[in-house]
Amino acid sequence: MLVKENKTTLKKKQKEFNKAMDDYHSHPYYQYIYKCISISVVVLQFLLILEIFELNISWYSSILALFIAYFLTDFINGWVHMYMDNNDNYSYPWGSFIASFHLHHQTSKYKNANLLFIYFNESGAKFWLVPYLLVVLWLSSLNIDPFTLLVLILIGILSSVAEVSHYLCHNGSSKLVTTLQKYRILLPMSHHEHHHKEENQSYAFLNGSSDFILDFIAKKLYRGYKEGSDKHFETYKGTGTDNRE
């Protein structure tokens, strides 16, 4: 939506948001679903990693595949982030997942945790990744180009790495992390700050390399979360710790 919400619509969305979050906290199966998604993602990624060892591909082609996959992963996950930030379908059956996702804008720092835990736990919010990995696993059984298959597999793995990159953007402080951020292997904190301080930009969260495209698309499609989802949870009494990302 590009048009600013009127007061009636805003109150309706706030009411829907609060109900969605009440359901989220009332029913434990939401957390069970997250765990099932996490397990599915990690198992499928492991199977696809085994497929990599079967590929007959040169080292320089592998490096090129990594660069391509890095950019595409940044773009794809940034696009999903952009869509979710501007999704206000709280009354849908999956509305509680959408509402809880929006609360990450309230959080400047997350609870410190082991990076493997972050990798596993945050993969549970990536619903789209399970069918993607299943399709790639199916493609691996076909006679497709090894280079293309490697790119697709790397996208599936790096999509979970993006969650770790985002976490470190908020919580990382070690010299190694800041070095990786400096050279854009991970998302620089200074780059990601634009997403939280400005409106409707910098949605990518692997390393931010695709934001120049995502920013253009965002301006064409959305008015931004500060005029949308942020206002929807203004009357919510919970905190940003309700989210998973």
Q: What is the number of helical segments per DSSP (H or I, 4+ residues)?
A: 11
Secondary structure: helix percent: 55-70%
Largest sheet: none
Number of domains: 1
Mean of residue pLDDT values: 91
Any idea what the radius of gyration is? 19 Å
The structural class is mainly alpha
| Gap between N and C termini | 24 Å
- Extract low-pLDDT stretches: 241-245
Overall outline: globular
- How many strands in all? 0
N to C succession of SSEs:
HHHHHHHHHHH
β-strand amount: under 5%
Determine the oligomeric state from the structure.
single chain
Provide the descriptors you would attach to this structure in a database record.
disordered C terminus; mainly alpha; 245 residues
Q: What is this structure, in a nutshell?
A:
By secondary structure, the chain is an all-alpha fold.
Give a structural overview:
This protein has 245 residues and is mainly α. The protein has one domain. 64% of the residues lie in helices and 0% in strands. Helix 3 crosses helix 7 and helix 5 packs across helix 7. The longest helix is centred in the N-terminal third of the chain and has 27 residues. The two termini are 24 Å apart.
Secondary-structure blueprint of this entry?
Elements: H1 7-26, H2 29-52, H3 59-85, H4 95-102, H5 115-123, H6 129-140, H7 146-171, H8 175-182, H9 189-197, H10 211-221, H11 229-232
